[in-house]
Design brief:
This is Metalloprotease. The protein is an alpha/beta fold. It is built from 12 helices and 7 strands. Helix 2 runs antiparallel to helix 7. The radius of gyration is 18 Å and the shape is globular. The two termini are 30 Å apart. Bound molecules: zinc ion (ZN).
């Protein structure tokens, strides 16, 4: 991706130096809400823990089932919360640098490119668009629903319309999933931005109502559709980016960028993650969809480049809670 000289979003909060020390992190809070064990983060583990649904209402995650830190924590009983970024990181074709400052700059630039597209695009569909905010943090961060930790992975919070990102997630994608390269992170941000569009359409609140009404298994089906639609929206944005040029007149996208996104989608499906970390696959507990579906809907978004073809709910035989926007 050619991004270095492009505009960076001003809707940005640098909270990397925040001192978040209060007790009662998200695991405790959700444990209390969900009637779980309440012992730290054990509640935010694999799907099926009873608490994941609550997280989804208030925070739309990038990965299913919490994240690897919490999965490992549950499986091994060790606290992996304080994982530190490895010093060596294999470079991909484009080196975006490993410094936190470079990562902040990159994330802000991608966020601006997302805003540049979704602002006008939303207007065409009559969506009441507001620009979201990017929060970069390190380790822990205060959110409207409690203290979140980086082992949750990136997430979007509908109530304050903010995307929360710990840039060390990039190392986790590279080291755990082998997903490297700058467009991997662009796809992550585009997925979270997709949740913001869903929020503006009314899907976030509709999902909250559905969760009250449906069994956990039924609700998970809707959750999967919502997540796959966010992947579809990431594809839609990628389509736009294909024709976007830098201030110097060069194409923003480089050879291999789209393949990076597809590669990432193919290793973050619930089936892949469950198999990798538990040795089993249980589709009933999927919350984000299979790897094949994540690739499929990213590709469809990239193919059509519009919202009309993004009704994943209908595709899966469910009623779309908010319908599909039309121009
Ligand atoms: Zn998501």
């Amino acid at each position: 991706m050619r991004w270095e000289d492009e505009k960076q979003t001003k809707n940005f909060e640098d909270r990397t130096n925040d001192k978040v020390t209060s007790g009662g992190d998200l695991g405790d809070i959700l444990g209390g809400l969900g009637g779980g064990s309440g012992s730290g983060r054990s509640g935010i583990g694999l799907p099926g823990g009873g608490l994941l649904g609550i997280i989804i209402i208030i925070a739309m995650l990038f990965l299913g089932g919490g994240n690897l830190g919490s999965i490992f924590g549950d499986l091994t009983g060790t606290n992996t919360q304080q994982q530190t970024a490895p010093k060596t990181s294999q470079k991909s074709k484009t080196t975006m640098g490993d410094s936190t400052d470079t990562r902040k700059a990159f994330s802000r630039t991608v966020f601006q490119m997302l805003d540049d597209f979704w602002g006008p695009e939303s207007k065409e569909y009559g969506i009441n668009y507001q620009s979201p905010t990017l929060v970069i943090y390190s380790g822990k961060v205060q959110t409207p629903f409690g203290v979140a930790t980086s082992d949750m992975g990136p997430f979007y919070s509908p109530s304050d319309q903010k995307v929360y990102l710990d840039t060390s997630f990039q190392d986790e994608l590279a080291n755990t999933y082998g997903s490297k390269g700058d467009y991997t992170m662009a796809y992550v941000l585009a997925h979270e931005f997709g949740h913001h569009i869903q929020n503006r359409i009314g899907l976030a609140s509709a999902m909250g109502r559905l969760q009250q009404q449906l069994s956990k298994t039924e609700y998970n089906k809707y959750s999967v559709c919502m997540e796959l639609q966010a992947d579809y929206y990431a594809g839609v944005w990628t389509k736009y980016l294909e024709s976007r040029t830098t201030t110097k007149g060069e194409a923003v996208l480089e050879q291999g960028d789209i393949e990076e996104a597809i590669k990432t989608a193919s290793v973050i499906g619930d089936d892949f993650i469950q198999k990798k970390f538990t040795g089993q696959v249980n589709p009933e507990t999927f919350t984000h969809g299979s790897s094949a579906d994540r690739v499929k809907y990213f590709n469809l978004g990239y193919k059509y480049g519009d919202l009309e073809h993004g009704d994943v709910f209908a595709d899966k035989g469910l009623r779309n809670p908010v319908g599909t926007p039309t121009r």
